[in-house]
Amino acid sequence: MKITFCFLCSFLLATTSLAEELEFGKDLHDNNCTACHNKPEFYTHKDRKRKTYESLEHQVRNCDNTLDLAWFDEEIEDVTYYLNVTYYRFQKPGKN
Ligand code: HEC
Predict the structure, then answer these.
(1) Exposed/middle/buried for 93, CB within 10 Å: 0-12, 13-18, 19+?
(2) Cα 8 from chain centroid?
(3) 20, 26, 49, 69: which sits with the fewest CB atoms below 10 Å from its CB?
(4) Ligand 1 atom 8 nearest Cα
(5) Is the pLDDT of residue 9 over 70?
(6) Residue 54, Cβ neighbours under 10 Å: how many?
(7) Helices 73-83 and 18-32 sit at what angle, rounded to 10 degrees?
């Protein structure tokens, strides 16, 4: 029974839709990150430093470390995905 449940669990996790990732990333961001970045301009102004998807993800990880949130990789990825779709619009290797 337990095994069946876990199998179902991982199946559900694996099929999380992009829309759900986006929603999840937005919630995480809005709950944890807006103390310092509460304006879209922070991510869109022309002198922003991140120029690639990788460097964006790297900075999300940096801020996560600074805040001691200890996010899982999935959470880092979902927030990066959210910021990218909403503001940065970098080419993402793999999925879009
Ligand atoms: C305590 C304040 C603080 C909080 C809270 C914070 N950050 Fe940051 N963040 C900074 C500072 C300072 C910088 C500028 C550092 C730099 O660009 O090298 C920055 C830069 C960034 C950038 C790069 C912006 C650019 O120039 O393109 C991203 C993306 C980012 N943060 C994401 C996040 C995320 C995601 C969270 C929530 C986990 C978060 N930050 C929470 C302080 C904070």
Answers:
(1) exposed
(2) 24
(3) 49
(4) 63
(5) no
(6) 13
(7) 90
For ligand 1, mutation pick of 26, 34, 37 (most atoms within 8 Å of CB)? 37
Provide the pLDDT for residue 59: 97
Residues with CB under 6 A from ligand 1: 29, 32-33, 35-37, 43, 48-50, 56, 59-60, 63-64, 67, 69, 79, 83
Ligand 1: residue of 31, 63, 67 to mutate (most ligand atoms within 8 A of CB) is 63
Whether 87 shows a pLDDT value over 60: the answer reads yes
Alpha-carbon gap, residue 15 to 4, rounded angstroms? 17
Of residues 5 and 19, more confidence is placed in 19
DSSP 88: I
